[in-house]
Amino acid sequence: MLYGYARVSTTDQDLSVQEAALQKAGCTIIRAEKKSGSRRDGRTELGILLDFLRPGDTLVVTRIDRLARSMKDLQDIVSELKERVVSLRATEQPVDTATAAGKAFLDMLGVFAEFETNLRRERQLEGIQAAKARGAYRGRKAAIDADEVRRLHREEKLGPTAIAKRLKIGRASVYRLLGKTEGA
Description:
Distance between the termini: 63 Å
Mean pLDDT: 87
Low-confidence stretches: none
Number of strands: 5
Shape: elongated
């Protein structure tokens, strides 16, 4: 049996192209989700599919980066599939773990997928630093009114626990804003 797995990273991306390619490849069941591929946890559809596969089945993806974006996750998934005598195929890449050449190509693609993820992360951090230097990036707006925390402490003589209850915030946040440690 051929089972398909489709994935996109964000909710505004479309799965239909992948699903159509998997149907064309002969997949009878396709599991799809809109989750990041950089980590395996939280990808429930992939977990369901991996639990369902039986010896002799084939897991089909359109591209290897749809399955995993880190070498470790990819190797773990491929190892699980191998232990269960399940092969892996990609419709848009010459990957078929039933062949030696397909296995070698799989490893190369995994390295490139992880490299691409790391490059994207580096470019994002560079962009944030450049924006900070221009004064265009200030981060997230503070959710806690630090002046109010200090005022309650100074003027109303409230302790951290009372301030936290009144403002409905965590006590650790109050300590942090008052410049104290949790045990002080």
